[in-house]
Amino acid sequence: MQKFINKLESSLKDGSFVKLTLSKPRVEAHGRASSDEYKDLRNVYVKPIILRNEKMYSFTYRYERRDEAKNYDAKQSLEVITKLISEIFLNASLFTLTEDVTLLISKKGKATVMTKAVKEQREQNVEHDKIKNRLINPENPWWFKLGLTTRDGKVTADMQHKFKQICKYVEIVDGVMKNVKFDGKIRIADMGAGKGYLTFALYEYLTQKCKYDIQMEGVEIRPDLVMKINEIIKESEMKDFRFVESSIEAYACQQTSDNSQQTSSNFSDSQPYNFSDSQILRFSDSIDVLIALHACNTATDDAIIKGIESGAKLIICAPCCHKQIRQEMEKSKVVDAITRYGIFMERQAVMITDTIRALIMEYFGYKTQVMEFIEMEHTPKNVLLVGRKVGEPSTEDKERILKEIKSLKERYGIERHYLERIYRCPL
Question: What is the reported pTM?
């Protein structure tokens, strides 16, 4: 082990250090935690950075449910890594400009060091956290008010995964929006907006970096949360942005009356922070972009319904649980070698639910994609359903889509998919 430590120390002194990875915690090998401080620690990643014009080393501690970041100088880094190897981890991989060094420690404590020369020229990346490439800036004051960051603009340890989720979601929305032609102000609705992380992220990115002219509306059922978020919006002086109090179902399914067709063009300070259903419907009878992040079960369908009925050019949803279709499958008692097992039944229900959603969206003129929008380590609910309005399909295509949906329903004993409640759905 000392040989590995010597290699590490040498790379830190001569500037050849590129990165280091620590893996295989001793707790997995021995069945106990070596230290409460490092309980549930899975990996540590180390890379050089420039911080305040000084070379430092950034440590990313990856725990089971969170990430933590710490910075040390060269001397401190050597001390910390030595301790981690001695007490916590069995494997270490050191990458330098000239060689790769691997340390393997057996359960009995025997250390093996393997060295491999680097054939191709390797470069160091010392840019600090790639701040310039971030889609959203955590130093903006509203992120602290929302509980995502500390006062100095650092993402809190327990919000690291959420931050990565919303950044990835924003990246995808940005990419899709570039392929859509918008006329005038872009109206965006976030269904089941919750605490507003995604809503604020999109508003910030689209207005500050993309310079889009947008109106943003978050839909949330909890009145206290709506009022709190609207206060933050007001304090942050965000224009054309508000939260409204409503369930997704109520917001999605009611139709605007003939005497309430006018749409508000802006939000003034004189407007109240709580809005009635009639006000919501007047504002929301036309939506350009509809988004929803982890709206539970059929709430995702309610969001899709609103998008379709309002003629949204984009519908982008990350579904949550899929209980409705699973209950239909269980009720029908259609069991095969796969659905006999609960975990596979659940996965089948997920695939069938989102496949039928995508097909119904295609029926109403959307080109659909179903994709994994982020790694499983950040959230297991990582499927994204994207629909871009391209125009009404042909009669033949509509008939084909309906046959595919009916075939799926018959195969798995599904009487009705919740999304069929859309009044123009002929199923």
Answer: 0.62
